[in-house]
Amino acid sequence: MKQVTIYCSSSNKIDPKYNEAARELVRALHALGYGIISGGGARGTMGAITDESVRVGGHHVAVLPRFMDGLENTEITRVIWTDTMSTRKEFMRADTCAAIALPGGIGTMDELIETLVLAKLGRYQGKIMALNLDGYYEPLKTLLDHYVKHQMMAPEDRELMKFPNTVEELIALLK
What we know:
By secondary structure, the chain is of the alpha/beta class. The chain has helices at about 15-30, 45-55, 85-95, 105-120, 140-150, 155-160, 165-175; strands at about 5, 35-40, 60-65, 80, 100, 125-130, 160.
């Protein structure tokens, strides 16, 4: 089974459109036969992803550090416990064909940028995408372009990350 990792928010205070996009993505991924690996928390977009995976009968693995015991969504297909956040990120990427960032905060950014660095270094082979719903990731695109302009990043490394504007565009890039 092909698997993707999804990085996303754990906040319950975000605009509901982000969770709706997450549910749409989950439905599309499961319809295409993809399994999902995520942070597996019960709150925010993580919870929306898990709930939708359960609803559609999809395969979903959660990866959580032990200190988050009790924060997991109990209906997940499988939970993998790690000792550290760094190990969590490694497990989330392992054997995936894509890393997808939905709108999120600093944890999502940490996961996304680390994945980009690993791809640049040839240590991650999957596709990297950030769902730019309503321009959410425009500041990141601008920053990466700034790095290229000042020769701090090679143009080909900048192209490792794609910024689809809709779930439909994201799925088209994944295929």
